[in-house]
Amino acid sequence: MTLAELKGIWKTYEMGHTLLHALRGVSFAVEEGEMIAIMGPSGSGKSTLLNVLGCLDTPTRGQYLLGGQDVSTLNDDDLSEIRAQRIGFIFQSYNLITQLNVVENIEVPLYYQGMSEHDSEVRAIELAERVGLGHRLGHVPTELSGGERQRVGIARALASSPLVVLADEPTGNLDTKTGAQILDLLMGLNQEGVTMIVVTHDSRVAGSTHRTLHLIDGAISE
Fold it and tell me: pTM of the full predicted structure?
């Protein structure tokens, strides 16, 4: 089943009297259970594409279908709801809340969904154990290693059972050994059925996915 589909996506910015085309007619589909890598040099449009995929930005032209719904023309409130319910985000810099412990950080998306305190705690503990942090539940981010912080970020991304998980350089801040462990975790989750799109510079990460899309000057290069 197709979970996400981009059809002729353009994103254009006005820079004074100049038009900057960050995306140029990007089209591809993501099937349920796929793990796709997006690669490209700096300035190729990867961040813009990730923002469109994550409903953080809307395209200038084209259509974006997510779970069969056209989200390319929705307003900010509707996009916020889509992000909360259908999309999980994993960040290179983790983006954890320093005052919250592991369980509480994982619970954040569930808070916005209105889940009860008991149910969200049970869900968060289950996810923490799933990513190998069952022994670190009460620790805050400053007490965790980089790899452990990223595991928290991965668990948080899964909290709302999203249609798709978007990972932005998930191994970018990690040493080689830890990065390999995080890659193994992501691959294991994908094998369990989690659909993922991974933006990466790491050829090891790209080589572990089902396919790689190369973005050059805002367009997919075959």
Answer: 0.94
